[in-house]
Write a structure and sequence with these properties.
The structure holds two protein chains of two kinds. Chain A is built from one helix and one strand. Helix content of chain A is 53%, strand content 18%. The termini of chain A are far apart. Chain B is of the alpha+beta class. Chain B has a domain of 117 residues: Immunoglobulin-like. Helices cover 25% and strands 34% of the residues of chain B. Chain B is built from four helices and eleven strands. Chain B has a five-stranded mixed beta sheet with strand order 2-11-10-6-8. A four-stranded antiparallel beta sheet of chain B has the order 1-3-9-7, with no helix packed on it. In chain B, strands 4-5 form a two-stranded antiparallel sheet. Chain B is elongated. Classes of the chains: A alpha+beta, B alpha+beta. Strand 1 of chain A pairs antiparallel with strand 1 of chain B.
């Protein structure tokens, strides 16, 4: 019985720790915007 | 014998003729164009504008000098990031669009209409062009904080980087500005145009109130503790896995 509780505890702690590490080191989602600029928009004022 | 010249009938005719003459003169005076600067009654009626009929061809206005390249502006930023010690990068790139230099073509009901190519004077020949970028993001640490300048050459791209770091969780809004500065090579005259102003929104988050450092440290410690607690059962776990595999085969 004691063995089973210890096993459950170990799995529980590991699962939470891995979740924390994954959140802490996951790359940030980046947004990319692409805009075309015609020569007419780069004229002298 | 004295003759009577002014009979009442003659007098009436003379007065009538005189009044008619004065009326004619007065009407003629109203019809004549008033001299500029002369005092008098301003015409109330509609002013007849002179109609100029031009026989020459319509004048072509020379196009203003421009950069003879279609360019592509790419903005890359983290839409969501962790608040605290961690930073990220915002990148703005003004590169030459190779596919953009195409004569505009339209197709209407099977007929292809090709746009006319217009010769636009090359701005690189007459001016020094500098790209100027700035990131305004209130409440967030931005490095570099001010304006960044980069010379813009023909066929070359200009890239700007900012390092951003939100201290507190929340939503941060700001603007990425891109201007072009033109300096005349001969006169040194400066001019500036705004090319783009893009609004960015960055959300800084934390883990249920815990900062990134706390979360990472907890994750490492928890992994070690979990490994130590579960270590005596590694043999059992491996045996359990292998037994299941053998049963499947």
């Amino acid at each position: 019985m004691k063995k089973r509780i210890r096993l459950f505890l170990a799995v529980f702690i590991l699962a939470i720790s891995i979740a924390l590490l994954a959140w802490g080191y996951a790359p940030n989602p980046h947004e990319t915007r692409i805009q075309s600029i015609a020569p007419a928009e780069m004229q002298l004022p | 014998m004295t003759s009577k010249i002014f009979y009442p009938r003659h007098l009436f005719v003379i007065i009538s003729a005189l009044m008619l003459f004065i009326s004619a003169v007065a009407c003629a005076g109203n019809l004549s164009t008033p001299q500029p600067g002369s005092a008098g009654v301003q015409p109330v009626s509609t002013v007849v504008m002179p109609v100029v009929e031009s026989t020459s061809q319509p004048t072509q206005i020379a196009p203003a000098p421009a950069i003879p390249e279609t360019r592509r502006l790419t903005l890359e930023f983290p839409a969501k990031m962790r608040a605290g010690v961690e930073g990220d990068v915002v990148r703005l790139m003004l590169e030459v669009d190779d596919l953009g230099n195409i004569t505009p073509t339209a197709q209407i009901a099977g007929n292809v209409v090709v746009g006319e190519t217009i010769e636009i004077p090359d701005l690189y020949e007459t001016h020094n062009v500098t790209a100027e970028a700035q990131l305004d993001l209130a409440g967030m640490q931005v490095q570099p904080a001010g304006t960044i300048y980069e010379p813009l050459k023909r066929g070359q791209s200009a890239t700007f980087y900012w390092s951003i770091r939100p201290q507190e969780p929340g939503t941060y809004r700001g603007t990425v500005w891109l201007h072009l500065n033109f300096a005349d090579k001969s006169t040194g005259e400066q001019s500036r145009i705004a090319v783009s102003a893009q609004i960015v929104e960055i959300e800084a988050v934390d883990f249920f109130g815990l900062s990134v450092n706390v979360v990472r440290t907890s994750g490492v410690i928890g992994s070690v503790v979990g490994g130590v607690v579960g270590f005596p059962f590694i043999e059992d776990i491996i045996k359990f896995i292998f037994k299941r595999r053998k049963k499947k085969t």
